[in-house]
């Protein structure tokens, strides 16, 4: 889901992506796993709370696409 949103609505910078991922982690939706390698490698996994939002967010995303404002 996050990948779909990023591809459809690109985040302006790596810094903004990092900030967004940290906020999702702080909100308990993602779990950050550092692999402890050089160069650094990090993966993110949905928590149970994050997984519980998959269908809701998918429906909201589809609703947004359907009702997207068009330039006049």
Account of the protein in words:
Residues 1-72 form the HTH hxlR-type domain. This is Transcriptional regulator. It holds the Pfam family HxlR. One of its GO terms (molecular function) is DNA binding. InterPro entries: HTH_HxlR (IPR002577), WH-like_DNA-bd_sf (IPR036388), WH_DNA-bd_sf (IPR036390). The structure is a single chain. The chain is of the alpha+beta class and 72 residues long. The chain has a domain at 29-66. It contains four helices and two strands. A two-stranded antiparallel sheet has the order 1-2. A hairpin with a 7-residue loop joins strand 1 (30-34) and strand 2. It is extended. It starts with a helix and ends in a 6-residue tail after the last helix. The mean pLDDT is 83.
Name some characteristics of this structure.
72 residues, alpha+beta, extended
Question: Helices and strands in order, then pairings?
Answer:
Blueprint lengths: L1 H7 L5 H13 L3 E5 L7 E5 L1 H4 L2 H13 L6
Antiparallel strand pairs: 1-2
InterPro entries: HTH_HxlR (IPR002577), WH-like_DNA-bd_sf (IPR036388), WH_DNA-bd_sf (IPR036390)
GO molecular function: DNA binding
Protein name: Transcriptional regulator
Task: Give a short overview.
The chain has 4 helices and 2 strands. It has 72 residues and is of the alpha+beta class. A hairpin with a 7-residue loop joins strand 1 and strand 2.
Number of helices: 4
Radius of gyration: 15 Å
Strand order of the largest sheet: 1-2
- What structural class do helix, strand and pairing data support? alpha+beta
End-to-end separation: 30 Å
State the share of residues found in helices, binned by percent. 40-55%
Number of strands: 2
Q: Could you say which overall geometry the principal axes of the C-alpha atoms support?
A: extended
Largest sheet: 2 strands, antiparallel
Helix-strand sequence: HHEEHH
Uncertain parts: none
Q: What fraction strand? A: 5-15%
Mean pLDDT: 83
InterPro entries: HTH_HxlR, WH-like_DNA-bd_sf, WH_DNA-bd_sf
Domain HTH hxlR-type: 1-72
Protein name: Transcriptional regulator
GO molecular function: DNA binding
């Amino acid at each position: 889901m996050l990948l779909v949103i990023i591809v459809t609505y690109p985040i302006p910078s790596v810094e903004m992506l990092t900030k967004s991922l940290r906020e999702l982690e702080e909100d308990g939706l993602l779990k950050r796993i550092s692999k402890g390698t050089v160069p650094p490698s990090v993966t993110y996994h949905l928590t149970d709370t994050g997984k519980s939002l998959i269908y809701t967010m998918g429906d909201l995303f589809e609703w947004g696409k359907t009702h997207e404002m068009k330039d006049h």
